[in-house]
Amino acid sequence: MHYLFDMDGVLVNSGPVIRRAALEALRSYGVLACEEDFRPFVGAGEARFVGGVAEKYGVPYEPAMKDKTYEIYLQYVAEGLVVYPNTKKVLQELTARGDTVSLASSADFIKVEANMKTAGIPLELFATIISGDDAARKKPFPDIFTTAIERLGVSPAQCLVVEDALNGIQAAKAAGVRVAAVTTSFSRQQLAQEKPDFIIDDLAELLTLPLN
Prior knowledge:
six-stranded parallel β-sheet; about 15% strand; 8 helices; alpha/beta; about 210 residues
């Protein structure tokens, strides 16, 4: 089986750090947002994450807003990033049993690299890494996942997406891939509305899912 992991909210919890960075970046543009403003844009990539909130307050999005957010993010990531308890164990056990693990995130590669370095997860562990830099359309469009599948040279039926965000579940389903939704960012009830194939509370449950 080929596991396509989203990163933020699945392997690591970067939410508080990226929200802090985005709030600071937007403040420099006169946008006085609050944390809850970002919720609809979780999983859609930082351009939409930052831009959607800016636009809510009547300020047009500029790419420099995202750049500023990442600049601030890199200052805080080492102290604020949290690795979920079973992340490393699950990645290691899946690869040990012959499955492949890939990373498919809407975040730009600069964030992927910083998060994995901070988490102590070598990039070489992943069969392929797709970041927001690799797809013009971010989640909920399927491009991130279809690009990963193409690079792996497999069929959607051979893959399982692991997601935490509603936008990510929609993207996986649009790509024709089964999806396991983890309850780190949204409740079971909220996730269930998107009809994922599985809902899990912990990544360790991936090791025993009935996938055949």
